[in-house]
Amino acid sequence: MLLGSHVSFTKEGLLGSTKEALKYGANTFMFYTGAPQNTIRKPIDKNYTLEAQKLMKENSIDITKVVCHAPYIVNLANNTDLTKYKFAIDFLKKEVERCKELGIKLIVLHPGSAVSLDRKTAIKNIVYALNNILEDEENICICLETMAGKGTEIGVNMNEIKSLLDGVKNKKCIGVCLDTCHLNDSGVDISNFSNYLDEFDKIIGLDKVKVIHVNDSKNELGSKKDRHENIGFGTIGFDSLINVLYEPRLENIPKILETPHIKDNIDSKKSYPPYKEEIEMILSRKFNPTLIEDVLKNKLN
Ligand code: FE
Ligand code: FE
Ligand code: ZN
CB of 28 within 8 A of CB of 61? Predict the structure, then answer.
């Protein structure tokens, strides 16, 4: 199984990310090229990148399955402020260049939010932007993430995802990232995931699925909230998530945990990533009811 988590990129760029992933016992990972909530980006350090690629090779991490997540504030759906819309397109073009420098092929992107526009127009804007960004590309894949339906988010059901994919001309450069928390919150019952995949295959094609975000959810089915929970501690539950993780049709697809860090029980400003413990639990296929306590005991940083 290709299993990893969100890791940081701030220290030593891709080298820091790789070291962090290895600490968790992961064989893949996902990173943001800077803070997810802003678009300030430092130039890529070539030496760290080369060292990272070497370290990945030594540890059999397939770099073509490592994922970059675009910042979630770039919005391709709304063009009422043309300067902002153009900035978003331009930023993503640069993000594609950064990924090529790093040797990364998969970029996860939130399609965007319609805000004041109707959904049809919003979809048209996203398609226009993606066609612009992907025009001359070939070795990169932008993976549109399925969204929970918070506010005016686009990409909240299969038809919207299909409209987006249909509009993009450069077919080999566009794919989908399924997020289990977002699916649950948008109204897809993960305990029936196999049925969802059947339908997805009929309408879109399973070959379009390039990344899975594996998260439990703090909220009920169809809540449109988008708040992630640790594996087995939310409303989706351990058994349903295990079925997603071990689904044979998705065997070679990287599975990325974006579950919340555990707050220190004494100093609430400190928190610890739960990924090593969650990965162990997933690989053993046995729910660990003391996961939170274990994370606070191990205090991995
Ligand atoms: Fe995301
Ligand atoms: Fe996600
Ligand atoms: Zn989310």
Answer: yes
301 band by pLDDT with thresholds 50, 70 and 90: low
Domain encompassing residue 126: 3-298
**CB-CB contact of 213 with 145 (8 Å):** yes
Residue 197's domain is classified under what CATH number? Answer: 3.20.20.150
| Token couple for 39 | 């678009």
Q: How far apart are CA 189 and CA 221, in angstroms?
A: 7
For ligand 3, the distance from its centroid to the CA atom of residue 226, given in whole angstroms, is 5
Domains in the chain, number: 1
Helices (H), the chain: 13-23, 46-58, 82-102, 119-134, 158-167, 180-186, 193-203, 238-245, 275-284, 291-298
Q: How do residues 102-118 score in pLDDT, each as one tens digit?
A: 999 999 999 999 999 99
Distance 147 CA to ligand 2 centre (A): 8
- DSSP H or E segment with residue 90: helix 82-102
